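Marked as duplicate of an earlier ticket. Keeping the data here for the record.
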Amino acid sequence: MKQKLPALMLAAALSLGLTACGGEPSFTAGTDKPYVVGICQLTPHPALDEATRGFQDALEEALPGQVQFDVQNAANDPATCSTIANGFVSKNVDLILGNATPALQAAAAATGDIPVLGTAVTEYGVALNLGSFDGTVGGNISGTSDLAPLDEHTAALDPKTAARVLELSNRIVEENRLTTLMVTHNMRDTIAHGNRLIMMYSGRVVIDISGEEKKKLTVPQLLELFNQASGSDEADDKLLLS
């Protein structure tokens, strides 16, 4: 079975559409047992559920009958992610999938030997506290990033991490001269980032501001403009928080 282990990594890579985040992991397994893959999912969520299910289906298709999955859910508790990851290490699984950033972080902290894949992770450099991240993590870690669309890509992050992600986003956009659409409900971010600000209400554009006019805006001014343009008093924390 040992000689077939590269097939597990290849199948896992194909199932994730793997980006170049990892290095060249080395690992061993038993001689007559199926591969054991530990999956730590941060929380029940339709998108995360689909990521786990898709990974399993693709791996099963690539290695039919040769993979045993140990799927555990951390109920949105990072500490539980650590417990799960350490449990996988104790069981000496052949591969760990960390579904969402805290799950990846827990797996990375738990082992430097067992191959770790990440999915539903926004930015590996931030997640793993890499000072000079160039797109390759190295070591035993690889995975896919969901940074590219920029659709509320800081919504589930703490303020410090969100600031780093936005800084990285700005750098990528500027260095590569990309046209990018960022969707957010954070009014400060709408003013601080980008060169054009568009707000919608009930399916129609009610504000379209760019250039110097955008740069001079304050959050209270923007909220007032929204109320005037939409004819609504719904600029509350549910719609326009922060």
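See parent ticket for discussion. The first strand starts at residue 35 and ends at 41.
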